[in-house]
């Protein structure tokens, strides 16, 4: 996961910049990914392939130079079923960063399992001659990392003999996809009496959180309308009794409200039900996004990605260059857990990630 720091002209289409990045990374299953950027107030946006760079006014106002962050735009519901190893590897890198930065919280036993897969993918089989005491402490897995977790990771790593990097990465994704916050794009909003909520856009629908607890879940096939006006965001849902109910939320300002609406339209379109279904529910869903600003998602949908016969995947003889993770000094008895869990993003340590991409909401 890196950054693109410059591009040719302001008249260049977003699709051209995206194409350059996808070719550089040798990606074919491209519709899961995108490029994000931040405006001056730290609100994040996705680069629109159909617009020129000059039309991304929030981006133009930040530079030059301009910085774009590569990352997953739509999280596959089951990343283990992605067709190409290179695509699964990019998902592995992103989800690993989500856990490290606290966007994807997990209990310590799960964190230990995930950490062991990272170590297996990075270092291979456990070797007592090479992997001396404290070797796990050279890596970072979660925020505020403790020695207890590192010891658990070492114990599990010893049991993973024989797993090649691709296998360890798939096993990592297999565990991570079951976490509650996997693939959840959080947006802060207000409900009645100015109470704070988060709307989470996921592969299966919109999830509503209050006080860190899930209080609502609306599946994409049952969402018949999404609309915004000024700072008010509306979600209309078809109930089991076939009656529609509208849920209203307030965004912080017009910009964040429009951004939430656009993300919701794109998620719904990407994860939508099959187009050939002709029942009344599908007909209602087909009107989705038709009110308000004219905005459409024009890439492939998740369904087309899995069924498209025009591209034979995986491609034969693919060679994947894996980058090494950033490492830190080993934990010692003298330092204990002090200062060793500090996460930095600069310096000359080995590793390719120099800029950590910002997120609309890193955690609750």
UniProtKB/TrEMBL annotation:
Subcellular location: Cytoplasm, Cytoskeleton
InterPro entries, per database record: Band_41_domain (IPR019749), Ez/rad/moesin-like (IPR000798), FA (IPR014847), FERM/acyl-CoA-bd_prot_sf (IPR014352), FERM_2 (IPR035963), FERM_central (IPR019748), FERM_CS (IPR019747), FERM_domain (IPR000299)
Domain of life: Eukaryota
Transmembrane segment boundaries: none
GO biological process assignments: actomyosin structure organization
PROSITE patterns, alphabetized: FERM_1 (PS00660), FERM_2 (PS00661), FERM_3 (PS50057)
Residue stretches making up the FERM domain: 1-275
Extent of Polar residues compositional bias: 330-352
Example of a GO MF term: cytoskeletal protein binding
Keyword line: Cytoplasm, Cytoskeleton
Annotated region described as Disordered, given as residue ranges: 308-364
GO CC, alphabetical: cytoskeleton; membrane
Pfam families in the cross-refs: FA (PF08736), FERM_C (PF09380), FERM_M (PF00373), FERM_N (PF09379)
Protein name as it appears in the record: Erythrocyte membrane protein band 4.1-like 4A
């Amino acid at each position: 996961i890196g950054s693109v720091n410059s591009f040719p002209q302001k008249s260049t289409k977003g699709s051209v910049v995206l194409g350059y990045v996808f070719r550089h990374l040798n990606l074919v299953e491209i519709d899961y990914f995108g490029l994000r950027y931040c405006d001056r107030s730290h609100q994040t946006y996705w680069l629109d392939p159909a617009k020129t760079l000059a039309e991304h006014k929030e981006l133009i106002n930040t530079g030059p130079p301009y910085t774009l962050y590569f990352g997953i735009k739509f999280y596959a519901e089951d990343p283990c079923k992605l067709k190409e190893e290179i695509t699964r590897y990019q998902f592995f890198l992103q989800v690993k960063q989500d856990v490290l930065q606290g966007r994807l919280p997990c209990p310590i036993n799960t964190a230990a399992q995930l950490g062991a897969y990272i170590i297996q993918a990075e270092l291979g089989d456990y070797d007592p001659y090479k992997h001396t005491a404290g070797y796990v402490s050279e890596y970072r897995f979660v925020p505020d990392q403790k020695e207890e977790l590192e010891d658990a990771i070492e114990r599990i790593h010893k049991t993973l003999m024989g797993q090649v990097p691709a296998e360890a990465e798939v096993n990592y994704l297999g565990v991570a996809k079951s976490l509650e916050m996997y693939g959840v794009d959080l947006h802060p909003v207000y409900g009645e009496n100015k109470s704070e909520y988060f709307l989470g856009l996921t592969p299966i629908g919109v999830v509503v959180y209050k006080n860190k607890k899930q209080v609502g879940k609306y599946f994409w096939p049952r969402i018949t309308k999404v609309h915004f006006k000024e700072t008010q965001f509306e979600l209309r849902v078809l109930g089991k009794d076939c009656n529609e109910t509208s849920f209203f939320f307030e965004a912080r300002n017009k910009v964040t409200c429009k951004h939430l609406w656009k993300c919701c339209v794109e998620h719904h379109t990407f994860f939508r039900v099959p187009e050939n279904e002709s029942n009344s529910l599908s007909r209602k869903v087909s009107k989705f996004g038709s009110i308000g600003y004219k905005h459409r998602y024009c890439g492939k949908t998740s369904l087309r990605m899995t069924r498209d016969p025009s591209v034979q995947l995986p491609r034969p003889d693919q060679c994947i260059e894996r980058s090494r993770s950033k490492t830190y000094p080993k934990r010692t008895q003298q330092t204990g857990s002090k200062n060793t869990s500090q996460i930095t993003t600069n310096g000359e340590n080995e590793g390719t990630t120099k800029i950590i991409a910002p997120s609309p909401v890193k955690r609750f």
